[in-house]
Amino acid sequence: MNAAPNFEVGAGKMSITTASSSGLFLAVIFVLSVYAFSFTKSAGPSLPIINPPKALDFGNRRRLQEFTENSLEILKKGRDMYPDQPYLLFSPFGAETVMLPTSLIDEVRSHPALGFSEGAEDQVHAYIPGFKPFRSAGMGAVLNKYLTKSLGKLTKPLSTETMLTLRETLPDCSETTEIHLAPYAHKIVSRVATRAFAGEELCRNQDWIRVSAEYTRLTFGDLHSKLHEYNRAVRPLVHWFMPKAWEARRLLNEAHQILAPYLERREALRASNEPMPDDALEWVRHVPNPEAWDPTTFQISLALNAIHTTTDLLLTTMTRIAQHPELFQPLREEIIHAFTAHGIEKTALADLKLLDSVTKESQRLKPVMLGGFRRWAVKDFKLSTGHTIRKGQAVTGDTLHMVAGYGTEYENPLEFDPYRFLKMRSEPGKKHQAELVSTSSKHLGFGHGNHACPGRFFAANEIKVILSHMLLKYDWKLAPGSEDPRTTYHGFLIIGDQSTKFLLKRRQEEINLDELE
Description:
Elements (H helix, E strand, L loop, with lengths): L18 H20 L22 H21 L5 E5 L2 E7 L1 H7 L5 E2 L1 H7 L15 H9 L3 H19 L7 E4 H23 L2 H22 L7 H4 L4 H29 L8 H4 L11 H29 L4 H15 L3 H5 L2 H13 L5 E7 L3 E2 L5 E2 L4 E5 L1 H4 L16 H5 L31 H18 E5 L9 E3 L2 E3 L5 E6 L11
Parallel strand pairs: 2-8
Antiparallel strand pairs: 1-2, 3-5, 4-12, 5-8, 6-7, 9-12, 10-11
Helix pairs in contact: 6-7, 6-18, 7-8, 7-12, 8-10, 8-12, 10-12, 12-15, 12-18
Keywords: Heme, Iron, Metal-binding, Monooxygenase, Oxidoreductase
Cofactor: heme
């Protein structure tokens, strides 16, 4: 594979500032918006639409903004009006998003007329310069074939890297110390994940960790949401006028520069017929469509898939534990027993059933998406209700039964029950639904069906390793003023309170994970 950097065009500082350019930009936006609006397909008679077009809303920008700001209430309205049938929603997932009730998700979870990458890449702007890492074609096959099969031998490296990262990243907490945990959690997850993807040398390169983390935060944050404020037809133009899009391209080019010497050394190793490492720098050579990927883009894509969601779940779980301090002792006892019995092995992680339950329950109440099941129709087909799904429509299942108490899937659905899924393991036929990595129509934290998150097995192990170290080595609680973190809804995104502060204090661990084999 050619290791030469594959640089992004349009990187650097934006310099388009003249009034004439601005006027031209606005004129083109208007024309394209009118064009797009004129050719938007009719919602059709078969499905009701919950947020119909607004008068003089060319390009539907007001509709998109309204959904972005009031998504939870709009989805509640839709489910209240149509509790057991699908309805149409105008959303960033697609001009016509079919919202399914929970009762229909299993019916379509692996339907051959529904694809994922066909619409997902468009929805996350993979066609825009600087967004190439958001491509998903081939990623799932690689993760299933290589990453998941490597989990057994990754437990010790993940534990070692967690130990080093906590030591080098967190401040001295010999006394109770107030910290804003979110940026630390992001660094910890970034480095530990990169240890699995690219080895210890690259994961300890501070420039690489910085660039991959900054790119992830930037593209998943304001830039992603800002682009969704515009009709799809004008996004290929509007990004050229966004400074943050230029910054994304600059970061991607910097990533190419950082990785280049590593790739050169890897090619030299290959030329000498030496054994090659088993990591993502090699896995990328075996993707089904290698022409669509280069090693840097693949690494950043792995970071996008692994860092943002895992960091969110780590913070969410630590927050829940802080709100329920009675969990510290039983969780620590479980960790001590598991690692004493098995050592730093995958089997020890499998024995962390209470920690698994606490994490899954935390994810149930605050997943990363209000639309936890996402597909795009590649051809027309009919639901059992008689409604027709049209080719090109997005199909989504909401998570209101998880986050807002809808439906009968859970007893006391708005209550945090850390033992909920631990108890479910003993119910006949439900053991495999109760695991963190399990997917079902009842729990869409990792999606469901044949396009469920392929990296969830790695993410679950990584979180358990990090939490095991944190629980044995630290006491924590929420700082004054942060006792009730605020969750916000931005379109389909569910965003935890990034301003939450923790009080952290080092403790003497009962067993030293750093010395176990």
